[in-house]
Amino acid sequence: MGITTSQVDYKLYLVTDREVLGTRDLINSIEEAIKGGTTIVQLREKNCSSLEFYKLAIQVKEVTTKYNIPLVINDRLDIALAIEADGLHIGQEDLPITVARKLVGKNMFIGVSATTLEEALIAQEQGADYVGIGSMYPTSTKLDAKYVTIDELKQIREAISIPIVGIGGISEENVAELMSTKIDGVAIVSAILGKENIKTATENIMNSINK
Predict the structure, then answer these.
(1) Is 146 one of the catalytic residues?
(2) Which residues pair with 128 in a beta bridge?
(3) What is the Cα–Cα distance from 136 to 13, expressed in whole angstroms?
(4) Its pTM surpasses 0.85
(5) Structural domains in the chain?
(6) Looking at 11, 18, 113, 135, which residue is catalytic?
(7) What are phi and psi of 147, to 5 degrees?
């Protein structure tokens, strides 16, 4: 049995992107982010073979297990099952959550990306354990992102009871504005992995969250 959703702290949700890292090592970078306060890690790999993704996921899981941090696999249900990940994150274009749930059972929590109140309500109704809402701000890691306003985020927060994670262009400068809407956490890529000192960048964001 993996980490159950009731045990998950969504506060600082790291989403990986090797392009943002450049030549730096992904595994070391994830470890530095965890040392800085990251509470959950999502492995997102859009441009690699299944075998490469699997091998990478095994390595990442060693680090997250060492620190007792939940590991979420983005999109790839097969990889999540193969490495016995703690969680799976799916988008609106992926397998329906009802199908994913049948395949992973109760041993894995499932998150769903949503950009509207309707999508968030459906995700909750169909059994999502949390939703990722965004893009909240312009982001270089997803150029085709649809934007969600702070008011829309507040409406979603009022309408659903499952945890909400804001995503998209979130930085040390705007994280306080998002957390004021009473969401459960923020998902971050560039504002951590794009910084020279990953541990310090993570600590700075966590300080802003805790304010």
Answers:
(1) no
(2) none
(3) 15
(4) yes
(5) 5-210 (3.20.20.70)
(6) 113
(7) -100, 145
